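Subject: Sanity check before I submit

Could someone independently write out the structure tokens for this chain? I want to compare against mine line by line before I put it in a report. The sequence has 206 residues.
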Amino acid sequence: MKKTDVIESLNVSRETINSFSEYETILSKWNQKINLVSPKTLADLWVRHFLDSGQIINHVDASGKKWVDVGAGAGFPGLVVALLLRDRKIDCDIVLVEKNTRKVFFLNEVIRKLNLNVKVVNNNVDTIEPLNADILTARAFSELKNLIELSVRHRKERGVSLFLKGENYRLELDKTLNYWFFDYDIFDSLSNSSGKIIRVKKIFKR
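---
Independent answer below. Compare away.
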């Protein structure tokens, strides 16, 4: 898959494409100073990060909701979601949680340059007060068991969690189901043949 395929798949305006290109420029510059993403993935940024992150909006209704992205890192998926929702004129309150201060500086730089309405919380998601999210997301942040526990802490009871997982998703899922009951759906990734998106709704402690 090429950049042009990603642009076609995301189906966004020229203005949003330009915003993604600027995001790419900022990320490439900052990645020389701090470890935001693996350098080898920069050449395939549009597929590995932009498409991978952006595909999750197809699996949730974000209109009028509070969306919390934990372990935001380089802004995946949170900032990509913000760009896509703005392109679709969908109003959504987006909050990124990141404990690494240098990464927070980067996130705020992208938000400022791209004129995004996104809040960044510089804190540890395990210890901050509950965030009362309608939607909670995470990518390359933690194992599924911990993400379910974070969902219980930071998400509304009738909310939705979306987690991007790799080829070991089934092992994580089976392990987590030993501790929690939850309603879930699994979707194939558009960007990675072995990747999955796990959508979690109702959660109950065993």
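---
OP: Matches mine. For the report I'm noting this point. DSSP finds seven helices and seven strands in the chain.
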